[in-house]
Amino acid sequence: MEAFSQVLSGLWDVNDGDTVVNPRKFYSVFKEAVPYFSGYSQQDAQEFLRFLLDKLHTEINRRPYVRRTGKDPEQKYARFRISEEAAAMWKKHLERDDSRIVDLFSGQLRSSLHCSVCSHYSNTFDVFCDLSLPIPKKSSSGEVTLRQCLDLFSQEEKLDKENSPMCERCNRHTECTKRLSIQRFPQVIVIHLNRFTMSRWSISKSTTYVSFPFTNLDLGPYGPLDCGPVLYDLYAICNHAGTVNMGHYTACCSDENGWCFYNDSSVTLVSENQLQTNQAYVLFYQRSNSTAATTVRK
């Protein structure tokens, strides 16, 4: 955290435009904490972000001394409404993990299972720090929108007996449907466009152009039924150029002067129409002021 804060201070506390910020010390500290990132092999930006947030959270956890045991005994919330069940699970999470990182980046996913035999619904809730979205096949126009990626992510999925969990009512594996939705919206939502897909023998990269909004991204349709609009504004983009085996990361970030393009040793101003490319890999959205205080209810 100290090394990372020094990088941030260097970026924000400059008095002129010629100051250089070298993150080498931060990288040295980071790879000591996460040896997986040592060396010069190709690494994934989303994985790096997950490790970084986890390490920062661990250092500033407001509940660092709560003992983590094995898997908690399963609790039944059948008599509760979904919102009460979700709130109970979120409270349980905060009893162990509560930090400024959680305040900003953590949300809650709801996975809903519907048994085709007895029509029983069951819900599980998981904490997330980013959404990894699949990219659908190109349309006739050759373009895919971020909303189409979100639709595919939340699309109902059919599970056969072999791949389905145990039905709580039938007490056996049955055919069922599964649907993902956002139960609790974070202040900052990190959207990962899953451009890398793995087959049995190889990994391939999608270069599909995915268009995305700069303001008023409404995630309300992917939340509880009556949550209303939940709006987000884009503030940063991580781009990946190249192939699976040889790539290069750049970033586009907004500040009071507009959008800047960061490419290792150079920073240049760019216009909004230069931001939409087929290299966009990770999108960073922050909750807009108009919806930041909205409480999700069901």
UniProtKB/TrEMBL annotation:
<dbReference type="InterPro" id="IPR018200">
    <property type="entry name" value="USP_CS"/>
</dbReference>
<dbReference type="Pfam" id="PF00443">
    <property type="entry name" value="UCH"/>
</dbReference>
<keyword id="KW-0378">Hydrolase</keyword>
<dbReference type="InterPro" id="IPR001394">
    <property type="entry name" value="Peptidase_C19_UCH"/>
</dbReference>
<dbReference type="InterPro" id="IPR038765">
    <property type="entry name" value="Papain-like_cys_pep_sf"/>
</dbReference>
<dbReference type="InterPro" id="IPR028889">
    <property type="entry name" value="USP"/>
</dbReference>
<dbReference type="InterPro" id="IPR050185">
    <property type="entry name" value="Ub_carboxyl-term_hydrolase"/>
</dbReference>
<dbReference type="GO" id="GO:0016579">
    <property type="term" value="P:protein deubiquitination"/>
</dbReference>
<feature type="domain" description="USP">
    <location>
        <begin position="1"/>
        <end position="288"/>
    </location>
</feature>
<dbReference type="GO" id="GO:0004843">
    <property type="term" value="F:cysteine-type deubiquitinase activity"/>
</dbReference>
<protein>
    <recommendedName>
        <fullName>ubiquitinyl hydrolase 1</fullName>
        <ecNumber>3.4.19.12</ecNumber>
    </recommendedName>
</protein>
